[in-house]
């Protein structure tokens, strides 16, 4: 579980990132979760956009993605979700 201070550091780093995934009309599926897990292993911190046509609630989508990818939910701001997962091989982010 991340502390408030760690989340603040991650939010600051995520500010400059561009979203690399989009959740659309079909919602969350296994293939998307697998791709997000792989991206988290490479980058540790990613942004995901929830499109207007997504039928599910954004907090539910964030919950499904974070649980599916075993990642920490850093923040939901507008229609953007920020996820963090410590990388095993490509550790770049040092948390306080």
Automatic annotation (TrEMBL):
Task: List residues of the CRM domain.
Answer: 1-96
In terms of Pfam families, this protein maps to: CRS1_YhbY
Cross-referenced Gene3D superfamilies, in alphabetical order?
Answer: YhbY-like
| Record keywords | RNA-binding
InterPro entries xrefs:
RNA-binding_CRM, RNA-binding_domain, RNA-binding_YhbY, YhbY-like_sf
> What is the name attached to this protein's record?
Ribosome assembly RNA-binding protein YhbY
> Coding gene?
yhbY
């Amino acid at each position: 579980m991340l502390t408030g201070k760690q989340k603040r550091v991650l939010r600051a780093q995520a500010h400059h990132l561009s979203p690399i995934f989009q959740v659309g009309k079909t919602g969350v599926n296994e293939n998307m979760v697998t791709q997000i897990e792989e991206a988290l292993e490479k980058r540790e911190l990613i942004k995901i956009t929830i499109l207007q046509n997504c039928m599910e609630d954004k907090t539910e989508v964030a919950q499904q993605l974070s649980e599916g990818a075993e990642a920490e939910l850093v923040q939901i701001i507008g229609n953007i979700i920020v996820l963090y997962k410590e990388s095993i091989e490509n550790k770049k982010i040092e948390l306080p």
